User: Fold these one by one.
Assistant:
Number 1:
Amino acid sequence: MSILIASQVLNGLATGMLYALVGVGLTLVLGMLNIPNFAHGVLYAFGAYFAHSIIKLSGSFYLALLAAPLLVVVMGFVIESQGIRRLYTAHHDYQLLFLFALALILQETIILVWGPVGFSVLPPKLLAGTVNLGFVIYPAYRLALIVVTILVTVALWLFLSRTNVGAIVRAGMENREMVAVLGTDINRVFLWTFGLGAYLAGLAGALATPILGLTPTMGGDMLPISFVIVVIAGLGSILGAIASGILIGIAQSLTSTWWPEASNIAIYALMGLVIVLRPQGLFGTR
Amino acid sequence: MARLFNLPTLLVIIALGIGLPFIQRPVVAAEVLTLGIAAVATNVLLGYTGMLSFGQAMFFGFGAYCAGILATKYGVSAFAAIPAAVFATAVLALLVGLVCVRRSGLYFIMITFAFNQMLYFLAYSWTTMTGGEDGLPGVRRPALIADQWSFYIFTAVLFLLSLVVIKRFVDSPAGRILQAIRDNPARAAATGHDVGRYKLIAFVVAGLFTGLAGAIFAFVFEIVPIDRIHWLFSGDIVFMTLIGGSGSFIGPVIGAAFYTWLQETVSHYWDRWPMVLGVVLALVVLFFRTGIAGMVVTLTRGLRRRTFVAKKLEARQ
Amino acid sequence: MSAALEVRDVSKHFQGVKAVNGVSLAVDQGALHSIIGPNGAGKTTLFNCITGEYAPTAGEVSFEGKRISGRRPYQLPAFGVSRSFQRTSIFSNLTVAENVWVSAFRKHAGKRIEVFRGADSHPEVHATIEQTLGEVGLARYASQPATALAHGDQRLLDFAIALAPKPRLLLLDEPTAGLSRADTQRVVQLIEELKGRYTIVLIEHKMDVVMRISDRITVMYFGEILAEGTPDEIRANAKVREAYLGRRA
């Protein structure tokens, strides 16, 4: 029994770390744009689909992991500079609707390019087996996933809190007018912040392929989860997004063991609880 | 009635109401009218109060499932099932509204969106009640309105009644205060209005009538498909509102008609019709924000709104 | 005779920063009391403690014997309190008459929420709107969209919204800020016409305006009261000169 719980918790940690990456990416852009990025889910999906194609073309999972998120970053740059930037002077709602329209267009593009049926991807040979952790025998890929995502998260945290550029990004998240007034090229900051958010979404998508597979609607399915993460965490909290991503992953995983039908709803019930009991989110300051 | 609706609005209502079932099959025309109710109701939130919600499908779907379940599982006639569904949806709207209406726009959007998806998953997994992924079939119309034409007239009557009630609401003091809240919430509060309470009222009114639209819809094709409670449909409702023109009362109805025409026409030729929806929405957002109604107004100019008060004052100058 | 507006030992702290520290003042009914001070003196913070934007960390504000501090902004009009805004704050998609309607209707209907009768079907409200617009000189623009007004006229509309409910306490936040000389004159003229009929508290930077219209002036400095008195007393006050102009002015 405890082996079951242990492996379910680890499973939850794995998906939770993926959620954390997506959630942090959304939080970065949320602070900057002041609207939820409705295209965030579809960028995640493109990370997965680019990875799939790179694997098919090159045979290398590791190359896909490296290159796919970068392709998504390029998409992010284009979206920000050619699309949202034109709408900065307009009401927030229009930026949001533009991103929603984009999400529709891009999701259909996935079906056009890769077809309406999903794919599955095998983990790379090196990580295809299992590892004996002592208290449980656990799939190697998932373990590697947890390690990699933790490393990425730590690197991101160091970047944001220890570097000058990171400080500017955090400042832009909180008060973009002030940053602009202080002489920084606010357009560059936005571009790179959006790119960073896109990178995290794309990376999560690529990493997810051996565990969750690919379907054209995977972006639309991830989007509500990313919103729940941010609501539970509270606006503007990167650590909070990481923590609540993990929390949601584990909650979902444990629920699916005993009450499978409710595992999807569990996340929203959790969100409802937080909204009522602690409206500013578990880690929120605003 | 002439005071309630201005002439162009009246013309649109009559033209659509009478013309639609001849252009389309009466069943599809009835669908357009239900979508029209939902879009006009959603515009109470968007155009009049300035609240963008991606959660309206939750009320459309909830109304549809309530009416559908009452009809299929409990043998309740549409004449009772629809009002019951409306009442239930109003309660849902009140509960959801209490939680999210006083939050910032950002939180409001994310929370309504998330609740919408929660209800979707509820419908998806509670297969015994809702039919799950396959939807809820067998929602039979009562004998009195079983054939296409009498059902269309039934829908048209409810459509007209809904428009009248909603129009009276937006023309009322509460309606104007909602517009003041849209324009300047801080000032609206400083002049003494409880902004949160007014927003809750708007949210419940919008949810209630969207639930009515869904409840009628259940009987249109005699099935409740699960995609009508999915968040993507919330986006479609916003699309209708925007492309028809969120700055006018009747605009959203035009948007509902346009949306249905687009769907019917394009999906014949191309499976990827949602892409066209996305492109049209992007163009509207970038270049045609006032929507079809707005463009008509601009083109015909000279349609300046004057209030009773202002006319009286001007007469004295 | 106790004052109409009493600010008793009000403090407002923001995480260690004492924006307002133990400020007291009293305004008699019908008087015009100005609050001045250099930037950062705490004038706006004090003002916001009176209007309900902030709840004081300590102390209390009362009007006509009733506590108004610590209440939400939308509750203040019920106490006869009304405010205008430093950056013109109007309802841009409504007409001029409809703008004034928003506050006039609240006075007429109280907390009642009306969803059935038409918004323009209350003759008493109509009369109030007409009278208020006449008072500020905007009657001929009644049916115009508010955004069609010139900058200075929009400021007058801002005042009209504050005046329509016939408040007993009028709080004006930098009423001449950003206005041209001519528009400033119009606003000052309006305020002088209102003097005596309303109890007025205002924040201002323009010294000539303050000296001309005020009955009493409170000077704030670093969150505390530096001086208080009539315009002549303040003009002669060495500490005030020093605060504004630096030492040995």
Note: The helical segments of chain C are 43-51, 96-109, 123-136, 151-163, 181-194, 207-213, 231-236, 238-245.
Number 2:
Amino acid sequence: MDGYAIHLKKDQINTPGGISFEITGRIPAGTTGHELKPGCAARIFTGAPTPKGANTVIMQEECELIEGDSKIEIYRPINLNENIRPMGNDIKIDDIILKKGLKLMPQAIALAASIGIGQLEVFKKIKVGVFFTGDELVKPGDTLKPGQIYDSNRYALTALLKNLDCDIINLNHVQDTLDDTVKALALLQDKCDLIITTGGVSVGEEDHVKPAVEQLGKLDLWRIKMKPGKPLAFGQVGQSAFIGLPGNPVSAMVTFLLFARPFIKKIQGCSHYLNTNFKVAANFDWHRPKPRREFVRVQLNQSSIPAKADQYPKQGSDVLSSMVWADGFAEIPEKSVFKSGEMINFYPLNEMML
Amino acid sequence: MNNQSVECGCDEIPQSLLSTDQALTTLTNAAKVINATEFVALDEALGRILATNIFLILMYPDLITLLWMATPFILKKIK
């Protein structure tokens, strides 16, 4: 703070008002000042170190300049060590101040800077290869012809990967043939740590991703007991891991966030790679037991304790507006039946999008 | 890429329906950390994953006074 550093004599400690001190120094931030003798004071400014001899600091508003500004007088009892932050108050020698695996946020960078560190050793960015199949998909901005739809997954996936600080190798649209799909995978397999696709991983004759991956590596097609997003493929192509997300837009995003995101964060070296959740109260009834775990898009009403979760009225895997409306996912366990007020797990989207 | 393959663990996975917990466990067990590292300036560090613990191990002795108001040290060495 701005004020006066003082060398308080023993008989001046906690003495009722009217004590004066001769001003013998001035210490702006960035300088160290001279040793203070007993009964003397030095003008001191925020950020400056206390000089040798100083044992308390008094804010300037409590000091009155007297005798042609050569002394200060203070009219209240003064104690030792007022307004002094001792060395090591924040961090002590040998403290780990930042742990391996930490995702560096502004506060961590500030702490590193505060102790003089100019650069940090970090894991290299992972390289993620993507390409998009589906002859019905059209780039936004182009005119739709009958049977065509706009491609949203391409933009969702690349944005999600950018949020995770991945280096993206994007082959963009690949013709929906087995030969072109194999060529795309072959191009990416030795350049990437991970390849991700959306759609085309089912077993239909127009689904070429599965046989293409199997030609170059190995693949397992999982049917997960969840909604949205039942099919998920996981495998390996050359040196690269492979994750095939479902093609429906909501399913693709939900499975990315619930499965691909923790996988990516772990290979990035992040120590906290699992999604966090907390309990909220359902603000809806769940009447019918269902065989699959559901991840319902909900909005939180935080005006009550606990916060209440309202569900979006349309929960189809094509209803992308539900993802924009929602604050997160409510996890509804398999075979559940409950009334409003039931405590359920909530996965916040704002955290999963980081 | 960072020259480390990621085993998919396909051989251990049952072919029938998986629970979400099984799928997540299988995926994260198969994920191996890419160990390649680099040094980046603080201006470039936002969002990156720290590859080593940062200790405060030594203060610069000339700057140590009995009581110290400002941020009190200069790091001599980083582990």
Note: The CA atoms of residues 180 and 208 of chain A lie 9 Å apart.
